[in-house]
Every structure is written in C-alpha cells, then in structure tokens.
C-alpha cells in the first residue's frame, strides 16, 4: 500500500520546488495527501527536490518526475525491456531544458518494483538516487527506521576520500552526519539544466536492490523532511497503521521542529503488506 504527502512549508522563496511521481502520474502541489493506493505487483514512486539556489528549479524537478512517468509507462507497455528507469535519460531531459532554465537543478530518489517473472512473487525493489533526497527502510522485524541512501555531498565525499587514503571500505554509518558546518552539505551531484553536455557531465548516482518482507516500509523523501525530523523520531508502523494519518503526524512534527518547516517537504510511504 502506498500514500504520498507534499507541502510548500515556509520556504523563504515562496515556491514549491518539490515534485513527485506516484504510481501513475506526477504532481507538484502546494499541499496535499493522496488517497492510499494498493499495488500488488509492479509499482514506481519518486521524489525530486528543486535545489533552491535557482528560483527556476521547480522546472527541473517537474521535468524529472515527468520523465520518470514516461520511462515507467514505457516499461508497463513492454515489461520485457531493459534497462528499466534509465537515469541517463532523465539526465538528458533535464540537461536539455530551454536556455531560460539554465542553472535550475534537482535531486531524485526513485523506488520501483518490476513485474514478477514465471509466477514467482517479487520480494525486492530497486532504489536509485541523486543528491540528498533519501530512502528510509522500516524493518518489521527490528521495528526500527534506518536511512539506506548516501547523500551526494561534500561531507560524504570526504568520508570516502579518507577511507580510500586508508585503503579501506567506508563505514556507511559515517555518512549523512548531522550538525556539521553548512558548506559541507553542498551537493556534489544533481540534475542540472545546461545543454552543454560536455561541461555538464552525467551526475553520479547510486543504485541498489533491497529485499523486503511483509510489513516492511519505505519512505522516499526530500530534505525538507529528513533535515527537520530525523527518522529516530518517526512513528513505527504495523499492518493496522493508517498511512494517511502517519503522514499527517509527520507533517505536524515537521512544523513543530526547530526549523518550523522552512523548506518544501515531500514524503511517499510504502508498506509491503502480505498478499
């Protein structure tokens, strides 16, 4: 089951630069919570956050989720095709926006599950992301939330460089640290409108496959959510939880937080129910 929430919040530029794709369409709304949807087989959701350095970044995020819709529809029309949700195609669509949008940029966090093959149930999802929009996993077994994506920012780049210098694998627990100097959170990769593709290279992105169990949950969200309310403060979820009520409670927490909803916020909640 799936449900999405978005709101403009108290963004200083007075704009809603978040956009999202939810099951079969894209949205960019000042305020809204979707009806709960049931998806027993293939599904796709995504959030995109326009980076506020440009007052035109809402166009980059909107183009991002429009392209997600196109790619997902292409898959539904021909489920044997590969690759699914090609990030390079999203990059090209954003990069080649008209010149008046140059400098507009956006993040992306995307989750999808393909159709099951040979009558076998599909118990895994694919997660792809660019920038600092994140995906969180709630384990029904441990009853805990954890972030499973690594922001593409200077802070995490330093973590990687230090690990490489010491000839070891970076500790995932060192990523996405809080309370550091704000310049360290500058994005190293995002989707940027600039048709000079030679000087606007394809951004780095991460892709992973996650096995999920019954009653596990995912939250796909923009930084207007996770910057203000860390996942340790999110409510637990079980098979009886009202997904709309859970998102409304998260919205209350964001407005009550120290930052007072200073940014746009979008969150998509996915619960994997037993069939």
UniProtKB/TrEMBL annotation:
Start and end residues of each PPM-type phosphatase domain: 1-272
Pfam family, one: PP2C_2
Name this polypeptide is given: PPM-type phosphatase domain-containing protein
